[in-house]
Amino acid sequence: MNNAIIYSITGIYIVIMIGFTIIAYAALNKVHKDHSHFLPVILHESNFLKLATVLGIIASATYLALANQLTEGVVAILSGIAGYVLAGVGKAEKKEKN
Q1: 48-86 b/e (C-beta count within 10 Å ≥ 16 → b)
Q2: Phi-psi region for residue 64, left (φ > 0), alpha (ψ -120 to 50) or beta?
Q3: d(CA 84, CA 93)
Q4: Does residue 64 lie in a domain region?
Q5: Domain-located, residue 15
Q6: pTM value?
Q7: CA dist., res. 45 & res. 78, Å (int)
Q8: Is the pLDDT of residue 91 over 70?
Q9: Any long-range contacts for 90-98 (C-beta under 8 Å, 24+ apart)?
Q10: CA distance 54 to 90
């Protein structure tokens, strides 16, 4: 595969991550100190980190596939991580319903 495509995808990924970091920083700075104890509760209840992990796995798998570096071992590891994370999301949703 052409190296220019891989470099451009890497650049796009970096720009997206920097943009997300700037937006998150700006949003968190606007939270008043009196309300800051609710932020961890909101992040925990929304499963933000778990879903961000799955999105990161999807991005990594896509990048590795385009770079022709996606082997069966890597697929197994990424699938295992995604399954573990998504199983935790399902258990959390069942607890909330009870």
Answers
A1: eebeebeeebeeebeeeeeeeebeeeeeeebeeebeebe
A2: alpha
A3: 15
A4: yes
A5: yes
A6: 0.57
A7: 24
A8: no
A9: 92/47
A10: 14
pLDDT per position as a tens digit, 50-84: 778 888 888 888 788 777 888 888 888 888 888 88
Query: What is the spatial distance between Cα 46 and Cα 49, in angstroms, rounded to a whole number?
Result: 9
Identity at 59, one-letter amino acid code = A
As for how many domains the chain has, the answer is 1
Residue-range definition of the domain harbouring residue 36? 3-93
- Give the pair of three-digit tokens for residue 48: 């933000």
CA atoms within 13 A on the CB side of 36: 7
The pLDDT of residue 28 is 75
Please check whether residue 98 lies inside any domain of the structure: no
